[in-house]
Amino acid sequence: MTVTSSINAMAHAVEALYSPQANPIVDGFAVEAITRIGRALPVVASHPDDAEARADLLRAAWLAGTCLGSVSMGLHHKLCHTLGGTFGLPHAETHTVILPHAMAYNAAAAPEAMRRIAQALGADGQDAAGAL
């Protein structure tokens, strides 16, 4: 549940970076959320009792939720909500499966956002979807 919920939060931050309403404040929140998730999620997946890493994920989720409430979401969210609603798929798991594919699809239209995502994930110069 922690992994899929964290990737669901990641989706809010990722899509905020290429939203038509993107702005410097939300961008900062989004990059920080992606960085924190990228850093803390592997730790929590390996050590579920690591309170410090879980606190980092909680901060990231708050930042990502603020992104979600501040700008519109894009293709990824439209796909996930359509698939989830039509077929009764679980919310976070659906976001986890679709996110890297939606990012790959959107990469050519949002190269600066993808560069920032890859950099936030510690994969500067690499493919953001692949880094995820």
What is the N-to-C succession of helices and strands?
A: HHHHHHH
Rg, nearest Å: 14 Å
- What is the count of β-strands? 0
What share of the residues lie within helices? over 70%
Care to describe what's here?
This protein has 132 residues and is mainly α. The chain contains 7 helices and no strands. Helix 1 packs parallel to helix 5 (91-106), helix 2 (24-46) crosses helix 6 and helix 4 runs antiparallel to helix 5 (91-106). The longest helix has 23 residues, at 24-46.
Summary tags:
132 residues, mainly alpha, 7 helices
Which helices and strands, and how do they pair?
Elements: H1 2-17, H2 24-46, H3 51-70, H4 75-87, H5 91-106, H6 111-120, H7 128-131
Helix pairs in contact: 1-2, 1-3, 1-5, 2-3, 2-6, 4-5
Please give a quick description of this structure.
The chain is mainly alpha-helical and 132 residues long.
